[in-house]
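Give me the fold.
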Amino acid sequence: MTDHVVYVLECADGSLYTGYTTDLERRVAEHNAGDGAKYTQARTPVEVVYRERYDSKSAAMSREYEIKQRSRVEKERLVGLE
């Protein structure tokens, strides 16, 4: 069974980035190497501040979308940065 992970990163500039992966350790390494999302390339280093695991890709992708639609304040509340 593959874990599908939705994660929130805190970037070096204090911004938050939400993403999806099946291998969180590898994906964070990619972000920090500048090979991740375009958004994080200029905002390294990044740190995982929140993660949720799902059994299906569709559930994880739906949750990623939900989190991305939240305001900054709502995201901070979710990840415990408030």
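Residues 20 and 75 are 16 Å apart (CA to CA).
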